[in-house]
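[Meeting: bench + compute handoff]

Bench side (C.D.) handed over the final construct sequence. Compute side (W.E.) agreed to return the predicted structure before the next meeting so the bench team could plan truncations. Sequence as handed over:
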Amino acid sequence: MKRDVTTTVLGAASLLGLAVVLGLSLTSPLDLNMGSLVRLMFVHVPEAWLSYLAYGGTGLFGLLYLIQRRRHWDRLAMASGEIGLLFTLATIVGGMLWAKPTWGTYWVWDARLTTTALSLVVYGGYLLIRSLIDDPERRARVSAVVGIVGTLYVPVNYMAVEWWRGVHQTQTLKLLGGVRWDAAPVYLPTLLLSVASFTLLYFFLLRLRGILAAREEAREERELTGVSGLEVARG
């Protein structure tokens, strides 16, 4: 089996970045109000960012499929949707661990939390639709449309704390209306490094899952039609 250098480099770079972030987060100063809980920020925020990135990728790859009709884009859309769903779950779990000592409860039906929970329904439905449609071309078309519409979740969820005020704090790093950092400056470099490391992790997982999906698709196609797996993988 030919070694995939790009996948190896992405995996090594993301692992190294995450290891450095772990060391920096464990040695970062305690917050005056939250104490050691502030260190959850270095995982929770990047997890949420990665879920946004993955859902955006699902919509983008779906759009590219509709334009070019290449199965390669459909496989990446599926892979990105799976990654987004996984890291949304991780975001919720991390948020619950943060919420219990600060809010006194693991969960409230706050606007940000509610829209996050709804994304599990949307993208869970996206993956369910893929499993229910046998025809590859029709499956790719339908799921592409669902994936594109589903990206509306990202701006709605991001702005939920501004549009509907609840118990969830507003963005620590504000990007709209001028970039502003609303926390101690000492935490910013570690958070940015963590976001960069999680971004590399996304591309590593996306590439790895895409390769596995291509192999699965090629094997299934060979079993059903006898078509060369190489031709399918290039689709």
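W.E. noted at the follow-up: The chain has eight helices and two strands. C.D. will use this when planning the next construct.
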